[in-house]
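Wed. Picked up where I left off yesterday with Ubiquinone biosynthesis accessory factor UbiT. The coffee machine is broken again, so keeping this brief.
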Amino acid sequence: MPALPTLPRPPSLAELLPGSLRRRIGERLQNLRIPDFTVPGPVARLVAHLPQQPPTQALTLALNLALDRVLPRDTLSPLTGRHLQMRVLDAGLRLDFTLAGRGFRRVAPAAGTKPDLVVSATARDYLALALREEDPDTLFFSRRLRMEGDTDLGLLVKNTLDAIDWDALKARLGGQRQG
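Structure written out below (tokens, as returned):
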């Protein structure tokens, strides 16, 4: 069977744009900020009645991908077996999870029990934290990020996130894509 001809690689966006335009677009993208937004109330009321398992599974998958690569398991060991809850206030989400021996997993909340730690914020503020646009301390002291329950666990989570060298991680991920 004859080999299929290989198609030429399409030019990248950087190759198509002139230098000055490419530079201006790059500068704008670097200074891009997340707009202020709130999930509309009717959407939040609907989401609050939907099963919370799919978004919790997505969260635990993301945490497990970061575990041992970005999030040091030994530092997080005090979270083992503890019931953690992440509330996305404007989206009606309550994501219940724990750290187990094999990683993060979803927890079905038991009636009448409270999570050991509840971290609450809006979708916009969680996104800003993830993109390092906002600092956890700034959100905490402006009462946009709240912690209830075992505050030692909350400080552990906050300090672990603060200790991550995001620039080194971005460089490492960028190098993997190119390599």
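Quick read: The domain at 41-169 is CATH 3.30.1050.10 (Nonspecific Lipid-transfer Protein; Chain A).
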